[in-house]
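We modelled the chain as a single entity of 733 amino acids. Its sequence is:
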Amino acid sequence: MRKLSNILQKITRLKRQNVVLLLLVSFALVVVVVVAIVLTALQTIASTTNALDERRSRQAMSGALAMMRNQMATTMHDYAVWDDAARAVYVPDSQEWIVENFGLASDASDLFDTAYLLGPGNTVVMAYQRGARFTVPPSEFLSSAFDVMMKTVRDAGTSDEAEASGFLQTKEGVAVVGISTIRAASTDVTVPIDRLQQLVFIRHLDRHKVAEIAKTYLIRDLRLVDAANLHPGAAPIKDPAGKVIGGLAWIAQAPGDVSYRQVRPYIFAAMSIVGIFVVLLVIAGGAVIGRLRGDEIAARRAALKDRLSGLRNRTGLFDGLQAMIDQAKDRRDDVMLFYLDMDGFKEVNDVYGHATGDRLIKSVAAGLSHLVPEGGILARLGGDEFAIALPIKRGDGGPPPLEAHILDFFSEPFVIGDLIVVAGVSVGNAISPLGSIDAEELLRRADIAMYKAKAEGRGRAIAYDAEMDAVLAERKALEAALRSGIHSNEFYVVYQPVVDAVSHSIVGLEALLRWRSPVMGMVSPDIFIPLAETTGLIDKLGLFVMEEALRVVRTWPQIGISINVSPAQFRNPFFIPKVSHLLEESGVRPSSVTLEVTEGYFIHNPEQARHMIGALNGLGVRMALDDFGAGFSSIGYLRQFGFDRLKLDRSMIRALEDGPRGRDMLQATLALAAALDIPVTAEGIETEEEAVILRLCGCDHLQGYYFSRPVEASALPALLADKAAPGIVTLSA
């Protein structure tokens, strides 16, 4: 019995051992199977992650190439569809302007390193590379696909399709190339259709540019490869003919493999602990997802930034401003927005070139960044416009004195390399009380206030008020009426006599523009002339006055005619040819024509003014400095620009009422003119006493209501028959 009991116990122990062994084996098999499944799943995830990362990299590189092409197209449009360029390149002696604005910009620009300006038949008008003259013509420097692009642009004439961009093979490698016909942005400027010129910009995909793309899109070891070494995983670069000319290749980061290698030792070390493996899997997966999310956030931030200044762009401003307003609404606070527009930035671009203008923008952005308090938003809206948004807590004593800091900042000149650049600013601001005004409306109000600041003399800050909307609506209505009036021939010219100071006989006429609107009646020139200057309509009106005046004065060949010229006309490169054409067409002697210009233009544009006056003197036309005494009245202008006549402003005549001091000032001015041998005309004479005093002080010509109000052309024959100076032939009009 004892033996049987021992046998049974041994069998029982054996069965238990077998069960344990079976359980252990089963557990081991389960663990092995689970581990195998998990490892297989990890390998699948790693492969999929690698594929996704590789696909993202290819998409990013394709997007980067497309962005370069689009950026080149935008650059071409900015440089080629430009009134100043259209005026400059189609006139003689424009090489200096072309080199300064196109050629030299290739040195400092990140947008292009080579620039051509091509005329009919691909004649090279200008060729620069990296700021130096370039002697290789496009036919030798670029592949034959360039001809396809050029044909497309030329076939489009001056339409919006006269632009092309794409990648080409050059002698220096692969480059993005843009072509655009030089043409005007507005209808006020015409270009010669038979002599159209094409601007060509080239930006090579050099090591610096490829490194910049790699940094932007977080691609490791990105490199440019030629077509022969292009592997299937690379992003191909094709020219406009569809030929592969190269590609972007990189070393795959394989984030899935990295994650797999990190977790594998832990899996084998703890095969019985499936849970740890799951945790590691979650960690690895989370790392990949987090990285992809980081790439997405970085791309979104890049889309909200301005490329040149590094500040937020318009989209970025709206994004942050609306969030600031929503937060202010919850906290019962206010939001203030400042809209800044630089004064004189266009002149900086015109005089020193776009490269200097870009560096000025960067300097301004850096300076403003130090002025914006914590929690504020600084953005560049484009061109020379900036915006600053600030949250303002109620009960803290009002908004911070940011306006004064901004104006002080712009009151100092900017040092740009070896240049000293002066640029002012006009500021408009608007407030969103308790977050009640949304971002779009707040920006509109600040913009209106900024234009109000510009209209009132620039260099100041103005807050928005509701009346500005009414003024803006009135201005737009007046502008529409002005355009309609030009089209409907509502403008006409009147003539005010200029008389000899001794005999009071008429020696000349001044042509004055008048507007008789069927709706508004007579509109003052003080109202419509400034509006015409800001809207670009002054060119048409100025030429209309000149054409009418020359037509009328042709009847009296011995009498002089004075015509006012707006500074805006002086900035037009086609002004001189048009004056020459009108003189030739009218048959009037150029020496009998005097063009009057105010001194404000010479303060801001001395070099351009000197060039224009020299060209007009070359035509035989006389020049007069108008409104002398109303502004700076610098003696230097009289000596520097060689005016043929000086016209005293009415304010100097009124100063006679101040007694001896006013008369002394007048006598000193006339003595100065006599010393410089410049004849003087006094305008605004309304009494006999004023006429006598001006004659005794030395004025040779007088003008004013005392002698005659301005009259229409039909009244001139009778007026000249009675008061014409001896030697003037009076004929029927």
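As a brief sanity check on the tokenised model: The chain is about 50% helix and 20% strand. The longest helix spans residues 2-80.
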